[in-house]
Amino acid sequence: VEMDGNGDESKNDVADFDPQAVRQANAFIIAGACFSIGIRYAGSANRDAAAAIFQRVMWFLELRDNKDVTRQVQRPDLTTLTTCLCTSAISLALVMAGTG
Is 91 exposed, middle or buried (0-12, 13-18, 19+ CB in 10 A)? Predict the structure, then answer.
């Protein structure tokens, strides 16, 4: 129980917590990080950058394709997951561009 500015008591309610929003934010943050690495190392074929992005691409694929109940509770909605998977794959393509 906390006191608000008016001297009234307010409870920290768990109902204010949106787990789906947290899962979406996590996925978008990871995809954004992959994209920033892709832009930074575009066309360089940097092995470390490519390996880091590839690991996340595979993670998004596993999260999308896995039918395990535990994984389904942890994953964001399919639209978010597909967007993040595609963004990460494009990021990997940016790093590997021009390598033949």
Answer: buried
